[in-house]
Design a protein that fits this description.
This protein is of the alpha/beta class. The protein has helices at residues 17-28, 58-63, 69-79, 86-106, 129-143, 196-202, 220-227, 259-267, 288-295, 307-316, 335-344, 356-363, 368-381, 460-479, and strands at residues 10-13, 33-37, 51-53, 110-114, 123-126, 147-150, 152-160, 163-171, 177-181, 185-187, 209-211, 232-245, 270-273, 301-306, 350-353, 402-418, 425-427, 433-439. Bound molecules: flavin-adenine dinucleotide. Flavin-adenine dinucleotide (FAD) binds next to α1, β2, β3, β7 and β16.
Length: 480
């Protein structure tokens, strides 16, 4: 449905995590606010979020979690090879705890705060997941009087005398077009992970990437902004979700709670490439983005394990904690039946054989026998002198049957595209604002990363979405 009025103080494009945070804040500050959402439902990828990053939040104070902000900033800048924007990063970190407190006061519930694997203890897990959080924000924004136009997309940023004057918009259901006026437009469209052309242009081996997003993050915000002179900025950091089952038939979400996927990626016993050669310390999966990078250094990757490992995972327990998966049981008691079921259905990504030789022949991995013989020597010696895997995770591959699962790389979201200043104003090629144009969330989050998403600071994209939406609004309020 088209907007009810012709003119607003602020138009927000996208009703995801950043757009909803901005909408609540805008109404708290008395701005006449319109939110355009091209989909039929609200929340965007915010629906799938586990938690949001914060430092010095109420929850961290309650639980005695203390973080040295200066050290954190320095470490994150180093992780990004100083490609992250230091002042913006510092501003975000400084405000992040207060942002969590603000969400909490609005009624967004948090279950716990802590690290993800070997990370800073910054992720505040939403009770009921991101879905509950975005619903709470939507309800609050609506109660406060924000107007939502659903199935309406922004098509073009309108400018006059160098300043934003509004948007041309389209009803996604009927194809009808219209215009709506505002001196302030906030782009909050969720980045470009669902735009295959942009992903291909900026990422290696894009055909092996499996997106797990909502399908609506098609890079609209950056493309609208580029057309009115915004700088192309810092594309290429994708939030990889580590290894993922390489299934070209079913969509990736089918495997999100799969125990085969968790066994093949997070338990990661032996990973080999297209020749059957080992190429990495499989503990790399402790950092899901590093794991994604490592997998993409090879043409193909297979996770190899034996029946003894399956039996152990089913009956005894996990070799290592499953940190990055929606499932984190003590045992994979459904693993054997999942394997049997997929084999029965001739799933292309899964091969089983009685012997290593047979597995090598079936998958066409000529070096597999040699690789496993060498790997078994390392297991027997209790020391991975080849790649440095921790001894406690050196699990053998010796007891048939043998399994190979082909891996691609999961990707949740893509960051960047637009450069913003400390008010989340979109900058042009000369480093000056495009007057009236703002960006938040993933559209602007290239400011926080280098070429690899900082999983070391867990929850940072969700935390940034909430922070940046509010941050832009505060500047609009000041200008108003
Ligand atoms: C499976 C999964 C798990 C994740 N887990 C975490 C996590 O635990 N912690 C974390 O920090 N991050 C996580 N993320 C990333 C997180 O979801 C995003 O960083 C966050 O949602 C970004 O907020 P956003 O507002 O930029 O985009 P979104 O929340 O995706 O919202 C963008 C909205 O804009 C709308 N839109 C797009 N184009 C237009 C247009 N032209 N006109 C109108 N509307 C438009 C879209 O339909 C969408 O509703 C996860 C992502 C996925 C996919």
């Amino acid at each position: 449905m088209f907007p009810q009025k012709q003119q607003y103080d602020l138009i927000i494009v996208g009703a995801g995590l950043s757009g909803l945070s901005a909408a609540v804040s805008a109404r708290q500050n008395g701005l006449e606010t319109l939110v355009l959402e091209k989909g039929r439902s609200i929340g965007g990828d915010g629906n799938y979020v586990e938690g949001a990053m914060g430092v010095d939040s109420y929850l961290q104070k309650e639980t005695g979690v203390k973080i040295d902000k200066t050290k954190l900033l320095q470490e994150e800048l180093a992780y990004s090879h100083y490609e992250a924007n230091a002042p913006h990063m510092e501003q975000f970190i400084d405000a992040s705890g207060e942002t969590i407190d603000w969400l909490h006061e609005l009624g967004v519930a948090f279950l716990k705060v802590g690290p993800q694997g070997d990370s800073w203890p910054t992720i505040h897990t939403f009770t009921g997941g991101g879905h509950a959080a975005v619903q709470t924000l939507y309800q609050k924004a609506t109660d406060l009087g924000a107007e939502f136009a659903m199935s309406v997309s922004a098509q073009q940023v309108l400018m006059a005398a160098g300043h934003v004057t509004g948007l041309s918009i389209m009803n996604e259901a009927t194809g009808q077009s219209s215009e709506v006026k505002s001196k302030h437009v906030l782009l909050a469209t969720g980045g470009y992970v669902d735009n295959p052309e942009l992903v291909k242009k900026h990422t290696t081996m894009s055909d092996r990437l499996m997106t797990v997003s909502d399908g609506k993050s098609t890079g609209d915000g950056m493309q609208l902004a580029w057309k009115v002179g915004a700088q192309h900025y810092q594309m290429g950091a994708i939030q990889y979700g580590g290894g993922a089952i390489y299934d070209k038939i079913q969509p990736p979400f089918v495997h999100m709670a799969s125990q085969i996927a968790a066994a093949a990626t997070q338990e990661a016993i032996l990973w080999v490439n297209e020749r059957g050669e080992r190429f990495v310390n499989e503990d790399v999966n402790d950092n899901m983005c590093h794991a994604g990078n490592a997998i993409l250094t090879q043409s193909k990757v297979f996770s190899i394990f034996d029946q003894a490992a399956v039996d152990h995972l089913v009956n005894v327990g996990l070799y290592k904690e499953v940190g990055n998966s929606p499932i984190s049981p003590d045992k994979f008691d459904g693993l054997q039946s999942e394997l049997d079921q997929d084999l029965k259905q001739h799933a292309k990504y899964l091969v089983k054989a009685d012997t290593i030789e047979e597995l090598a022949a079936k998958v066409n991995l000529p070096k597999l026998g040699e690789t496993i013989a060498q790997y078994q020597k390392l297991v027997a010696a209790g020391s991975d002198t080849d790649f440095g895997k921790q001894t406690k995770y050196l699990t053998g591959v010796s007891t048939g049957s043998f399994y190979a699962v082909e891996l691609g790389v999961g990707m949740a979201c893509a960051l960047g595209g637009l450069r913003v200043d400390g008010h989340n104003e979109v900058l042009n090629n000369y480093g000056y604002p495009v007057p009236g144009l703002y960006a938040a969330g993933n559209d602007a989050a290239g400011m926080l990363v280098g070429d690899t998403y900082a999983v070391t600071l867990p929850g940072s994209t969700a935390g940034y979405a909430a922070f940046s939406g509010r941050n832009a609004v505060l500047h609009v309020v000041g200008e108003h």
